[in-house]
Specification:
The chain has 2 helices and 5 strands. 36% of the residues lie in helices and 33% in strands.
């Protein structure tokens, strides 16, 4: 069975005169998202021919550092969860989550 539906996700980046992101908005029509604002994004794309990961990391200049730390922590936790679903490697997933706990502890992200 071939592709029966295509779905677009679109990011629009507003830049200042030095091409530094001022604003990020995104749309995902199938997900009901229209012109949603964001302060940061991380996109990874697997190039299967080169066997390499292509990355795009952007954040607006007014992204607060404390929110960036939280964003990184949540991204790492999500990566551990995705890794487990994709590989069924529970041991390494647990190791990744241990690192996420360590990361949160060192950045004082955990609630007391």
């Amino acid at each position: 069975m071939g592709v029966v539906h295509k779905s677009d996700i679109k990011f629009t980046i507003g830049l200042d005169e030095n091409k530094v992101p001022e604003e990020i908005t995104w749309n995902a029509e199938d997900g009901g998202i229209k012109d949603a604002e964001s302060k940061a994004l991380m996109i990874s794309v697997w190039d299967h021919k080169a066997k390499d990961t292509l990355r795009m990391d952007l954040w607006t200049k007014d992204m607060p550092v404390d929110e960036m730390k939280q964003f990184f922590h949540q991204t790492l936790v999500s990566m551990a969860n995705t890794f487990e679903r994709a590989t069924d490697d529970q041991r390494m997933s647990a190791t990744m989550r241990d690192f996420c706990d360590y990361f949160a502890e060192k950045l004082e992200l955990k609630k007391q």
